[in-house]
Amino acid sequence: MIDDPLLKVLPFGVLLLPLAGFVVLALFGDWIRRDKEETGAGILACSTALVSFGLAAWSTWRLQGLVATEAGLRFFRPYLGFEWMEAGSFRVAYSLLVDPLSCVMMLVVTGVGSLIHIYSLGYMAHDEDKVRFFSYLNLFTFFMLLLVLAGNLPLMFVGWEGVGLCSYLLIGFWYRKESASAAGLKAFVVNRVGDAGLILGMVFMFYAFGTLDLVDIADNAGSLAPEALWEFGPATIACLLLFVGATGKSAQIPLHVWLPDAMEGPTPVSALIHAATMVTAGVYMVARLGPLYHVSETAMATVAVVGAATALMAATIALVQTDIKRVLAYSTVSQLGYMFLACGVGAFGVGVFHLYTHAFFKALLFLGSGSVIHAMSGEQDMREMGGLRTKIPWTYWTFLVGTLAIAGIPFFAGFFSKDEILAATLSHPVLFGIGLFTALLTAFYMARLLFLTFFGDFRGGHEREHHLHESPWVMIVPLVLLAVGSAVGGFLKIPHIVEPVFRLEEGHLPHAAWLPRVATLTAVFGIVAAFYLYLTRPEVRAVLARPFRPALRVFAAKYYWDEVYDAFVRRVVVGGSERVLWKGVDVSVIDGAVNGVGTVTGAFAQLLRPLQTGLVRHYVLLVLGGAVALLGWILWS
Amino acid sequence: MDQPAFVPHAVLLSLILFSIGTLGVFLRRNVITVLMCIELMLNGVNLAFVAFSRSWGTLDGQVLVFFVMVVAAAEASVGLAIVIALHRHKDTLDLDAFDLMKG
Amino acid sequence: MDAILFYAFAAIAVLAAVVVIAQRNPIYSAFALVVTLCSLAVIFGLLGSPFIAALQVIVYAGAIMVLFLFVLMLLNVRREEEHPEARGGRTLAGIGLALVTLLVLQAGSVLVRSERSPSLEFDASTTRMAEVLFSPHFLYAFEATSILILAALVGAVVLAKKEL
């Protein structure tokens, strides 16, 4: 452990600045709204984001400069003096954890986040509710930072829930639009299901290991006996439960259904939350608890298989999407699958590496699509686009960089991270095969997107053609910066930087010299195929597709996940609630009992009513009778 | 002076008077007659008190009789005032006619 | 001597009481009640309580019954009372009465049988009564009854008024 007075304070600064931005915008929003343009909101939000990034960079630099401990691990744990919760042996403090992994995440969140804040100044320029938007953006940034900087699981969970909340708020930002509102709700509810698993996991974790502190867990995980496949020891159970939460947050099977619908939100939201940061929280958590996952073979296998399956499934769905944002959404799900695949085979650092490169090029792609949509006056269907290459050149060139990065073309960032993932899976041939095939599909559908949007003839009609215009520089600059990141970001050896966090023996990835070449060839083949099928000879498409038609139908229907959930979950729950719980229990039993009491009392009263004749005679008789009874009782008892 | 032999019989007499009074309360329809029967009951009680007072040799019973009489006087006057008011209201003195508390 | 007087007046009292409840005309009932009260006064005297006897005549027979008669005549209750229909009520009353009789007999006999009286002078004269009434034991009650009478007075006046 190291001591540094500045590092005690800086991380809190990083954390609390966006929160302050939110608070100011929330409290003084009306003051800003007096200015019709609401420019103050955006400027304030961007400032907090940028300064936060500066502080994050400073913190990282300081951490770098400090003396390393014997284990080679550099970390720092600033904390507040008072505890959050204390109940017997259960103690939770407001403690942060600053180590290489959290620094990387912190920089990604604030860096990419700041660029997206700046981009939003342009994208949301004509929106009527900028104050609310930027306040939510800042709030999200705060919660995400809390998530990655937290030093214990409960605090991380606060951030986890918080980003879920902000996701709901931002997806449903245009709440008057019913589909947006519904999408927000869907995201939140599905997330919640995952969170249930997460909470159970935390409870179990405390029960089994007695601590929820991240450093303690990592330190002591190694002393646990390894659990083989199909063994369900404490480590396995804890990891699986927590992984349920990760599938919810990071949109893996079976809780992936919310992410495509989340595209209802404004594009900057899609870029920030559903590409670069929030959805990566699951990967971060798994990586953070890597030492524990490593103990359990079952958990690792589950993570890897789910990741691979999701990657493949999402890629196939992306093949047949026509909405530009939906393609990117499914692409995100697919890439997240890659990250989990990497973690599942033990290469946690590589998973984080892909997280980092993905943040760059996916944010770039989303923001670029936003630029396209902006030029297309709101149209998102790619069938209406075409030939935009010459009309919006800046957008095109940056988008091209992003596409090459995600496809895995050498030199660009995605190549390095994807290559290392594939290398890590070499010892599991099936997973490797899935990974390679998915890479092919990725290259194909991204190239398809590129060609449909930017090449060929414009199919959108003359009206729209007149309105095609390049985006303002506020939107272009972030695109350029992200493109630079996507291009050269891969040269930063992230896996090496974060390796010590996982406390594993520095395993060398199997080095197969043929792998980079095979991967590149696959990517190139995918691009060429798309070029051929969409630009050169489009008529071949129909011919080639015929034998695959049933499969393509399944892809287009998103594998019927939504329909299955609707039939087996929603209908059952709602029907059960309505018919059984509401009408059966509440109305019949509970209301019946309460009303019954009233009715019975009334009936009883009616029975006694004849007693009140109103005649004094009878009353006197009753008095006499009572007196006799009393007297008798006194005398004879 | 020892108590006279008829003291127990005085108690019996008091019981008889009380019973007759109770019977009258039940059987008569005229309000004022009922009130008179109540007076009869009270007198029966008074007799009992005096008899016992004589039997015990103390004066507490007699004092109680004194108070009973006072109360009876007050009750009779107020009761009759009410009867007058009732008569003014319904022009009848039939007890069964006043059944407002029915139901 | 006393005994004979006692049984005689006891019989008169009972007879008059029966007349009270049996007579149709309330005025006759009232007169019969006066007879009962006076007989009782005699019996009080025979039991050695001159003060109470005097009180009985003055207050009960003299004031209360006169009041009754005033009201009866004021309301002109000369009408014959109709025969009550409630037969069931009468039997019930009879039963209740029988029960009461039994009970009181039981209670009374228990108390009377016990060895009570010391062979002392039984002094129930007015002086003695006054001493007891004004003793601290009963003084408060005594004064309280005056309030009671005041309340009854006011109440009676108010209740009987034509308009409040």
Q: What features would you describe in this structure?
A:
The complex is a heterotrimer of chains A (637), B (103) and C (164). Chain A is globular and about 115 Å long. Chain A has helices spanning 5-33, 39-65, 100-123, 130-149, 153-171, 178-209, 214-221, 234-249, 258-261, 267-276, 281-288, 290-295, 297-319, 324-344, 348-375, 388-391, 393-407, 413-424, 429-454, 462-467, 473-488, 494-498, 514-536, 539-545, 549-556, 561-608, 616-636, and strands at 79-87, 90-95. In chain A, a hairpin with a 2-residue loop joins strand 1 (79-87) and strand 2. Chain A has 637 residues and is mainly α. Chain A contains 27 helices and two strands. A two-stranded antiparallel sheet of chain A has the order 1-2. Chain B is an all-alpha fold and 103 residues long. Chain B has a domain at 30-92: Orthogonal Bundle (Helix Hairpins), CATH 1.10.287.3510. Helices cover 76% and strands 0% of the residues of chain B. In chain C, helix 1 runs antiparallel to helix 2 and helix 2 packs antiparallel against helix 3 (50-74). Chain C is mainly alpha-helical and 164 residues long. Chain C is globular and about 50 Å long. The N and C termini of chain C lie far apart (56 Å). Chain C has a domain at 2-103: Four Helix Bundle (Hemerythrin (Met), subunit A). Classes of the chains: A mainly alpha (637), B mainly alpha (103), C mainly alpha (164). Chains B and C meet through helix 1, helix 2 and helix 3 of B and helix 1, helix 2, helix 3, helix 4 and helix 5 of C.
Characteristic key phrases:
B: about 100 residues, Helix Hairpins, 3 helices, C: about 160 residues, mainly alpha, 6 helices
Let me know the average pLDDT of chain C: 82
The rounded Rg of chain C comes to 20 Å
Low-confidence runs of chain A: none
Strand element count of chain A: 2
Number of strands of chain C: 0
The main pleated sheet of chain A reads as:
2 strands, antiparallel
Number of helices of chain C: 6
Secondary-structure element string of chain C: HHHHHH
Any idea what the CATH superfamily of the domain at 2-103 in chain C is called?
NADH-ubiquinone/plastoquinone oxidoreductase chain 6, subunit NuoJ
> What is the 3D shape of chain A?
globular
CATH architecture of the domain at 2-103 in chain C: Up-down Bundle
Strand order of the largest sheet of chain A: 1-2
Give the fraction of residues assigned to helices of chain C.
over 70%
Mean pLDDT across every amino acid position of chain A = 86
Percentage of residues assigned to helices of chain A: over 70%
Query: How many helix segments of chain A?
Result: 27
Report the span from N to C terminus of chain A: 86 Å
Shape of chain C: globular
- End-to-end gap of chain C: 56 Å
Q: Beta-strand level of the residues of chain C, as a percent range?
A: under 5%
Order of helices and strands of chain A: HHEEHHHHHHHHHHHHHHHHHHHHHHHHH
